[in-house]
Amino acid sequence: MGVTFSRKTILTIFMLGTFGVGMTEYVVTGLLTQFADDLSVDVSTTGLLLTVYAISVAIFGPLLRIITIKLSPKPLLVGLMAVFVASNIMAATAPNFDVLLLSRLTSAAMHAPFFGLCMSLAMNMSPPEKRTGAIAMVQGGLTIAVMLGVPFGSFLGGMFDWRFVFWFMVILGCITLIGLAVVTPNMKPSEAPNLKKELGIFKNKNVLMVIAVIIFGFSGVFTAYTFKEPMLREFADFGVTGVTAGLFFFGLGAVVGNFASGNIHPNRLTERLIVVLGLLAVVLAAFTFILQFSAFAFVMTFLFGAGTFGTTPILNTKIILAAKEAPSLSGTIAASVFNLANAIGAALGSLLLSAGLTYTMITLVAAGMIAFGMFLTILTHHVEDKSLFQAEEVRG
């Protein structure tokens, strides 16, 4: 069946969906203090809202995609967005912290399959020379959510109540659901996905090396990111407006970093990754020291965002290009691995904070982890199969 709506219209709806899913994932970082006050839990405990979400994405996301691998993309996308709407209604009406945690688990289960399907469809409906840009547009919804959605959610929660944030997500989800039902083409693969072949991704050394970088190195980002909001309050002495501005500059950096990395040639991905990880480690090591100078706080949050989301498209692209045997699962696996790293980093940050470490110590630990990720990337540069990325450049 042909595509009724224009490619740009379809990608815009996909981007709206990834914006909503991305905002739901990250908006809690700007609301930790409010959750703690309203639901009578410690700030360190509220960090579990990120950890539980990430664990659910990492575990239940791939399982859900495996179970539904034979289903057509369009009804699956609509069904996943319906789960998103229901989970945010649960969050908005949560009577206690446990129910809020459950809503996060439910919402996270649809995250990786949704992103994976959107990226797959975006590639399939695009000519070869525009496929990288199509993926960047889908991923752009996430970075715009970090730039605009997270600070807006923090402001909305600070001015009114954190529950208003989740009701906003319900409205956004309903609009996206209708859009997906109307514009998504009924595209089906030329041959049915072979689950056994797709699972071969876990034997692909090139993919496994990238996964190692994400889990053992990039996870350090989330060790610090989880407590960005209280850091802005403590070191920069920001109130609601200052925190909102700080979150905005983090998001602005995220958008700039995301689209800048989207222009990197495939055969230069690993080299650029080494550089970006090194710079990000320096930013995190200096973060709380420079944050004390309010005038430079926005610069540091911008650099933090640029480094973080300037890294993710490189790592995502390396996984998708290397996983030739798993066109249906690679996007889901990539999203899941990042959220596993999120869970590891957020859990470590909560553990360190509960153990009495200061935010400065936590950011130094995070910087060390990122530096280790850079070391792993240097090793990867020497042993990976570079023909995978060179071939893609020739085709593109």
From TrEMBL:
Q: Name one GO cellular component term.
A: plasma membrane
Q: How does it sit in the membrane?
A: Multi-pass membrane protein
Q: Name one Pfam family in it.
A: MFS_1
Q: Where in the cell is it found?
A: Cell membrane
- The source's domain of life comes to Bacteria
Q: Where are the transmembrane segments?
A: 12-33, 45-64, 76-95, 101-122, 134-152, 164-185, 206-227, 239-261, 273-291, 297-321, 333-353, 359-379
Provide the Major facilitator superfamily (MFS) profile domain boundaries.
10-385
Q: A GO molecular-function term, please?
A: transmembrane transporter activity
Quote the InterPro entries the UniProt record gives: MFS, MFS_dom, MFS_Efflux_Transporters, MFS_trans_sf, Tet-R_TetA/multi-R_MdtG-like
Keywords, comma-separated and alphabetical: Cell membrane, Membrane, Transmembrane, Transmembrane helix, Transport
- Any keyword Chaperone? no
The name this protein goes by in its record: MFS transporter
Species source reads Salicibibacter cibi
